[in-house]
């Protein structure tokens, strides 16, 4: 010191010399004394001493002043208590900063919890059975002009394989029927239940392969006799209440009585086997003799017929597939539809979309990557906001360092503050996840629950997530802020290099908005493709047409009588008896011969059984020939233009007169007309060669064209007529346009997911922008003040910020556009009929980004632009 001063109370000096680190003693006797000298001259000794004591007491906090060696002052409890107090005060002082961080982290962690639960649930499918690595499902590859994949097999295959070869320890055939009618007769009451996909005809060995334990009954004998059945506990209670269901009887399709011989535990949610009613396989002879036949069943594959095998230990999958190929040569030697039977591992059943798997592993990987991205961007935004706050806290850090705090103490102080924000966000995330899981289950059609007390993996994930996010989000700000030089901080000389690389921030913002724009591009393309599929001309009229189930016991005479009665009702414009609508998920695949050829064609055809009113009801267009004549037998056939092309005929007119032989020779009739092509499946598939003919044994629906102004009353009247004719059955109907919309259920679900993730990504990107603009505003405070003093307008100052963000968004777009185009171009390859990706898609993507960015930064920019320049300069 240059001159002698009157020191403050000697007691304080003696205490600090004894308590403090030597660095602190130098500070007290150096810089702090200069402040005291200035106060002494201005305020006098009494007030200067008092202010000196107050200043020291404010700084005298555990964890900030480093004590001298050998002095034990603060305990871990006291240190963490201090950390909590300091962190809490900072969070309360900066409410906007705290709320934004908590919101961003909570939203991303909620998504993380959802995704973890979905991935965990799907990966656990059917892993609870004994010896799951030896369980396989037999599937079929159908080789024609194209290869088709089916998870079904000819019904006799399982029995022949069991008897002919020793490779399997157990073989079980299961046939699942959809839309089965179950009736119970209780006194004079007839209770009717529609069980969609819940009824299976199963061999006894099914319960030897799969681990579905019985509560009542013996699995070895429960399904040996015809007309016996096993129910799950849920179905038993549904039908028979709390009393034992064993010995009770229900009726299948009003014609087959089934006696309950066992009750299963309810099936777990993580299995692809969803049947809750198992009828003995011997009963199939009464239900469907053709399907139960040991010879006729080789001629085709029925949906729902599956075969499972439990291989012997050490059995070769390749060898089994090789020996099964012999069945094709023996039982299908002349068919152009060449079968190849393969073994599909049980672990692959849930994930293989080719064979009907409900969740591809690729989708789980995509969900996981999205979850990680959301976590990473939330952490990045936290870093941006934290380092943007650095200038405000730099003097605090400088004073602490001068008072003896070491870097490690400051680092863990910031980590502790980050942990407070993270675990607050985690609590909010857990609450949001608990509230949101019913909606997630409805969306994904799952039954996932969150129970932290019983599900230790979920509890471990949530706790681990909190610690990982705390470290990732807090490490860099803690490292940067604890490394602040005290001299530069106290003198206000910090530069942006001192508090983090600004270019790194720019890069992160560009990455965030690039991903957001990719999601926007994907959303726009999927929306346009869905609109194209729903609004395009399908080649037939789908509006106001309702398909009404004709009833399982409808004969030709009964159905025709009902058709005539319905046609006379007010509001009915047209009606036809048919198998299905022109575009339907149900079809009758067949192999045909043309004229006198003895060999079948090498392509698949689809037969649509319908009466002569089918063409007018659906407004199908004839391009050559005439319509069918009214008949109850196969006398004539209509074909579509795709059939003409497949037969290599020159024109539709050339097709007239050719003879079609179908259904193994039982159908033989000339072509009398050619229909303009119509979409018989979704836009994913090409238009199939189609035959339309009068085959009344296959009429299962009434197609009714309604006047929609009185549709409700008309349907009520139809139901009354129908119920009078079929009192023991359920009246069912579906509008054609709604059924067609189900073709795109997966795409609609994908679109909703992309919309949700797009919103979250944009929201998190906005938080990143907010952090960047906050940082820029702190850095440019003095520059803005000088510009305003020199006459700069608010618009000019706003443009200083606007051009920065516009440049970042344009760079992000330059990255997102080719990536988005490539991804959506590949996605569209799954459609035979697709839109083209036009320039407006990309204009919309960058326009949305600019609009959102403007809203995000506008308030902060204008707030900064309107600050009084005198205040700005004084702050600096």
TrEMBL record:
Alphabetized UniProt keyword annotations: Cell membrane, Membrane, Transmembrane, Transmembrane helix
Domain MacB-like periplasmic core: 98-325, 515-695
Recorded topology in the membrane: Multi-pass membrane protein
ABC3 transporter permease C-terminal domain boundaries: 369-485, 756-869
Xref: InterPro entries: ABC3_permease_C, MacB_PCD, Macrolide_Exporter_MacB, Permease_put_prefix
PANTHER family reported for this sequence: ABC-TYPE MACROLIDE FAMILY EXPORT SYSTEM PERMEASE COMPONENT 2, MEMBRANE COMPONENT OF TRANSPORTER-RELATED
Record's protein name: ABC transporter permease
Originating species: Chryseolinea lacunae
Lineage: Bacteria, Pseudomonadati, Bacteroidota, Cytophagia, Cytophagales
